[in-house]
Write a structure and sequence with these properties.
The chain has 741 residues and is an alpha/beta fold. Helix content is 35%, strand content 20%. It has four domains: 197 residues, no CATH class; 195 residues, no CATH class; 198 residues; 36 residues, no CATH class. The chain contains 27 helices and 27 strands. The protein has an 18-stranded mixed beta sheet that branches. A seven-stranded antiparallel beta sheet has the order 15-14-18-17-16-13-19. Strand 16 and strand 17 form a beta hairpin.
């Protein structure tokens, strides 16, 4: 610590500026629980830009120094987190404290202050001097190469959109749009001017870059005003990193069924719009780099979407929601908290979820690649058999709605504007009529006899309806980029002590063929059974109460080898440790990351833990022996009661030790090697003519071995965490199912 203080102590005054303004925590929102590398520092009030830039530069140069400065001078509590923490920030917008976000053309708004060109054009002398000192400590900077522009991502976070001190969410988003346009104009002008230049050699530069904002509607009922606002901004190509929504209609709408249905349809059609919009046409140039660990191929307009689906949802609401999801092009990552109950139409929920997420129609139209089912209240065998029946049907729309087979094949059409829509039928087969001012794309016809005036259709955001045949324009050309495979799935049950796990094999057998990444919130199936249901898995994560483990099968997939048998005893840590100690064991080779919660053994007991003392000590010694032998495990976290602190030093010995796995060599270095080799063996024509030797021909296996030897080894990370003595039942879902970062 003294050495860190000697090298970095000059930044103490800058860190003092940030004292009390920063705090660190794991993600709280459920969809982020399943993410990787989403930890970040969160900002609670207006920031000092240059101080943030300097500590971010330190994070780029030396992670240990960055953590030390924030811990000592900024009083940021990292708990016992040992992983690298990127310099990325959430700006919490305190809307209650702002009477107006914009006035007289001047913005008192964090994104403009943080992310416009002022940070580049008008740095203070003290800031420049401090940044030069940081640059001097970066040994990677070279005198013959340009310096580094450190991009610092910033996101605005609106935690509660039911604000009252400003003129509602509409005004907030309007002001954000103006701010984003202002940032874009300033940077466009700056980059065209003479002051725009690359970073000088052996220098660092810090640039705050705006990422799309985060909006949470978790505490808001869906009202006509809210639906209108979200629809307007989606159509205006406003981008979001994340959007979360409580799927609950305003109770005041119960007496006005027509307005209720239009409001819900407008909200679902906006959140799950069928138009894929370009970021090039957005208000500003967002920083939208895709994290390789995000499990999606591209970022779309709403980023990740989370829906809180309460037990109050009616079957017609579930229809509307899932019919919109089936054609959505706004998000590639969706999470759903499924609070349905077995006595409240759970079978209908699962039938519509099958259609909206996994059916052929959904895979042909929807952009969703990553899906999480969270806090599932009901997943009975009856539920899943109905789910599987929809997926296996040649005519899923008819299976879904219980309609007879049509004389004409199902098809897609566009419903013309102002066309009457019959959406709810009584015993006399009569229905009120709705209409919308714009055409509706991807209306699905089914059970069509080819003659009736009214045709059965699925209308996105309305569900099953009837429309007049003359109002349909049949689609001949698919406007989408092609089918999207749903490759990532996470499943977590609300009651891990008493779920119906018998249904899970049926479910995985129905959907598992496309999955590459699977997370299960309990050790509820044998590993071999999971792999049989999901033959193309690359990664499997098991998040049980005592053990969390992540398996990686990429090496087997690369050489087309069948996956080995991997069954193990999750409830016996000593036995599991012995299996992982066997370097020839397939289990040892496949388990990459693991978290052991030995606190679970004493959960719920008050007073002494003497009864479990022998077992915990035995388990800890077995884990230490495993670390001595195992050469494949990249990360291990051991959570213990506080009285076992003495073991911390023993585990620390294995922290940052190299293992028998190299880092993946970046493509740029591979190309550099191959181009250098080509130049070396090429030579001149004269030289080649006088030589009897031909350049060696390297096969793919030889090149792969060369690249492996050229790559530095992965360093194992070991985290030993003392428990806060909370019982398992007291922990939130986010803590119980914390991700293996």
């Amino acid at each position: 610590m003294a050495e860190l203080d000697r090298r970095w102590g000059f930044l103490a005054p800058w860190c003092a500026v940030l004292k009390g303004l920063l705090h660190y925590e794991y993600p709280k929102r459920d969809e982020e629980v399943w993410d990787v590398q989403k930890r970040r520092l969160q900002i609670n009030s207006k920031k000092i830009r240059e101080a943030l830039a300097l500590v971010s530069a330190v994070a780029h140069v030396d992670q240990s120094a960055w953590r030390y400065l924030l811990d000592k001078y900024c009083e940021v509590d990292f708990r016992q987190e040992s992983e690298d923490i990127p310099a990325r920030f959430l700006v919490f917008m305190d809307l209650e404290a702002k009477e107006d976000l914009a006035y007289e053309g001047t913005f008192d708004l964090d994104p403009v202050q943080l992310c416009d060109t002022h940070q580049r054009k008008h740095p203070t002398d003290a800031y420049v001097a401090a940044l030069q000192k940081i640059s001097a400590l970066d040994k990677r900077l070279k005198s013959d190469k340009p310096g580094v522009d450190i991009l610092i991502p910033v996101r605005l976070y609106f935690p509660d959109m039911d604000i009252v001190s400003v003129d509602g969410p509409q005004k907030v988003f309007n002001d954000i749009q103006l701010a984003e346009k202002m940032i874009r104009r300033k940077w466009a002008k700056y980059e065209q001017g003479s002051k725009s230049r690359p970073v000088r050699p052996r220098h660092l530069r810090c640039t705050f870059v705006l990422e799309p904002m985060i909006a949470s509607f978790n505490d808001c009922w869906i009202t006509p005003k809210m639906a209108e606002m979200v629809d307007h901004h989606v159509r205006a190509n406003v981008w979001f990193s994340q959007m979360s929504l409580w799927v609950k209609l305003d109770p005041d709408l119960k007496t006005d069924v027509r307005t209720l249905r239009i409001t819900f349809a407008k909200m679902m059609a906006a959140v799950f719009d069928s138009t894929c919009r370009s970021p090039e046409l957005a208000n500003t140039t967002y920083h939208t780099k895709i994290d390789p660990s995000s499990l999606v191929s591209k970022r779309l307009q709403l980023g990740s979407v989370h829906l809180e689906c309460s037990c109050w949802l009616q079957p017609k609401d579930v229809e509307a929601m899932c019919s919109a999801i089936a054609v959505s092009r706004t998000t590639s990552k969706l999470s759903l908290r499924l609070q349905m109950r077995e006595d409240q139409d759970s079978v209908k929920w699962w039938k519509w979820l099958a259609y909206g997420l996994f059916s052929k129609q959904a895979r042909a139209r929807s952009s969703i690649e990553s899906l999480a089912f969270i806090s599932i209240r009901s997943m009975s065998t009856e539920d899943v058999e109905a789910f599987a029946a929809v997926l296996s049907s040649e005519h899923p729309e008819e299976e879904l709605c219980g309609c007879p087979r049509g004389q004409i094949e199902e098809g897609d059409a566009t419903l013309v504007s102002h066309a009457p829509i019959r959406w709810c039928f009584d015993e006399q087969d009569e229905s009120p009529v709705l209409s919308f001012p714009s055409p509706i794309r991807f209306v699905r016809t089914f059970s069509d006899d080819g003659e009736s005036e009214w045709v059965d259709v699925l209308v996105p955001a309305l569900g099953r309806c009837q429309v007049q045949r003359d109002d349909l324009i049949l689609d001949d050309i698919d406007a989408n980029d092609g089918p999207t495979a749903l490759t990532s799935l996470a499943i977590q049950f609300a009651d891990s002590d008493n779920p119906d796990f018998d249904s899970l094999p049926i479910f995985l057998a129905a959907v598992g063929s496309s999955l590459k990444f699977l997370t299960l919130g309990a050790a509820c199936m044998e590993l071999d059974d999971i792999l049989r249901c999901c033959p193309n898995l690359q990664e499997l994560s098991i998040c049980d109460e005592l053990v969390e483990a992540r398996f990686n099968f990429v090496e087997y997939r690369a050489v087309n080898e069948p996956l080995p048998s991997l069954n193990c005893n999750w409830n016996d840590i000593a036995e599991l440790s012995r299996d992982l100690s066997n370097t020839l064991s397939p289990l040892s080779k496949c388990v990459r990351r693991i978290r052991i919660r030995l606190t679970r053994l004493v959960s719920g007991f008050s007073g002494s833990t003497t009864f479990y003392q022998t077992r915990i000590e035995t388990d800890l010694k077995a884990l230490l022996n495993m670390l001595e032998m195992n050469r494949s495990l990249e990360f291990i976290s051991v959570v213990v009661p506080a009285q076992y602190e003495a073991f911390a030093k023993d585990f620390q010995k294995y922290h940052l030790q190299p293992i028998d796995r190299p880092h993946t060599l970046v493509l740029k270095k591979k190309i550099a090697f191959l181009s250098a080799f080509d130049r070396q063996v090429g030579g001149s024509k004269k030289a080649r003519a006088g030589s009897s030797r031909s350049p060696p021909a390297f096969g793919q296996d030889v090149l792969e071995n060369i690249f492996k030897l050229a790559s530095p080894p992965v360093l194992r990370r070991v985290q030993f965490e003392l428990s806060d003595d909370k019982s398992w039942e007291q922990l939130t879902d986010e803590r119980r199912f914390r991700p293996l970062e």
